[in-house]
Amino acid sequence: MIWHPYTIQLDSDPPLKIVSAKEEFLFDENGKEYIDGISSWWVSIHGHNHPKMVAAVQEQANQLDHVLLAGFTHPPALELAHELLEFAGWNFHKVVYSDNGSTALEIMLKIALQFFRNQGMEKKKVFVTFSGSYHGDTIGAMSVGGDSVFNRVFQSLLFPTRHFPSPACHDCPVGKVPHSCTEDCLDELEAYLSGHSEEVVGVLLEPLIAGVGGMLFHKPAVLSRLREITKRYGVLLLLDEVFTGFGRTGYNFAFQSAGIQPDMIALAKGLTAGALPLAATLVREEIYREFVSADPLKAFFHGHTMTGYPGGCAAALASLRIFKEENRLGDVKILESYMEEGWAKLRSEFPDKIKNVRVLGAVGVGELFTGKEEPGYISSFAREFKRLCLDRGVILRPLGNVIYITPPYNISKASLQKIFQAIREALAYYKVPD
């Protein structure tokens, strides 16, 4: 009956039926307990079914279920907009609501293009992106993503963009090492902008970590140089914080690690901690000003039926309160330390099987040696690895040869140790291909 996402229809394991959840645990129909090592696609930052989240959603449902946001407003949407702008350090001026990361990203692209159109700058139509990127599965989001299994079949539908090598510090595209690098990986991009800035709308990046593309890390200095370059050439800096936002990298938002002000950021996932769907695009004041006009052709004609709906806003407000009251950034710092220790042990125990170990905030990563096998999302061992961990009561979902842990920020140390033990036992089965 259900067409499950990212699933090979004739060669996949049957779906695991989950019936309840609490904290970092999921429970199947037989009562078996599983540790959620990926916070259910990176959303459950407080764990599952946090009582304050549940209470907030129930209270809002009893008061106001839905009202359109075109020509109307309501208290949760107003309050959340203020809280988000404050949470982002007042670097932005307006909040545009939507319902998932792809739509938040599409909105950012459309606003960026129209920002220049409203000024009569018709030549600007190119977006600059990076290899290894993933920004969602809608047409615009796929257009600015890197070449991958997710969008390859749809290439004829996508608008053209200009791609550059991902600034991945653990696998530097120009052969440098982080401590002696001056962000040389951006030299080619800067040279391109110096001759084509009149055509470029903006540069789009997942700050600090490119998630689905393989958990590719870069340092904050990359963001600093990108901001300097884009300002110099009159190009917008657009950041996809769908994965990295709400504490994932150890900051409220990843861009804050570099002390910069992007032009726009797209948010989802941790925004409501998985309780309900909601997304937002935060827009800098200078961008918004170009839409303030009596001319209808300068208005931004974009909306969704569930834009800024009360339940989603109430869930997001509750999540932000919990984030502050329970000191989630403190939890992330502790989690980072535990993961550094755990991954270091795995690296020392399996030096012939694990490489490129890296940890940042609530993200811990190690890559399998793949021999001559092409690494990627459909790596042959990924499904077997997932199954071996499930047998041990741990939910992990490798990105091809990339094993990662992205648990709830407040996961217990005992549960984290069980995750590492499951990885350890799964690695014992792994044979590096010739």
UniProtKB/TrEMBL annotation:
Modified residues (N6-(pyridoxal phosphate)lysine): K269
UniProt-annotated site: Participates in the substrate recognition with KAPA and in a stacking interaction with the adenine ring of SAM, residues: Y6
An annotated Gene Ontology molecular function: adenosylmethionine-8-amino-7-oxononanoate transaminase activity
Catalysed conversion reaction: (8S)-8-amino-7-oxononanoate + S-adenosyl-L-methionine = S-adenosyl-4-methylsulfanyl-2-oxobutanoate + (7R,8S)-7,8-diammoniononanoate
Keyword Cytoplasm annotated: yes
SUPFAM superfamilies associated with the record: PLP-dependent transferases
Annotated residues for binding of substrate: W41, Y134, K269, G303, R397
Biological processes annotated in GO: biotin biosynthetic process
Entries under Pfam families matching the protein: Aminotran_3
Biological pathway: Cofactor biosynthesis; biotin biosynthesis; 7,8-diaminononanoate from 8-amino-7-oxononanoate (SAM route): step 1/1
Documented EC number(s): 2.6.1.62
Keyword vocabulary terms for this entry: Aminotransferase, Biotin biosynthesis, Cytoplasm, Pyridoxal phosphate, S-adenosyl-L-methionine, Transferase
Highest taxon in the source lineage: Bacteria
Top-tier EC class: transferase
UniProt subcellular location: Cytoplasm
Function: Catalyzes the transfer of the alpha-amino group from S-adenosyl-L-methionine (SAM) to 7-keto-8-aminopelargonic acid (KAPA) to form 7,8-diaminopelargonic acid (DAPA). It is the only aminotransferase known to utilize SAM as an amino donor.
Protein name: Adenosylmethionine-8-amino-7-oxononanoate aminotransferase
Native organism: Leptospira semungkisensis
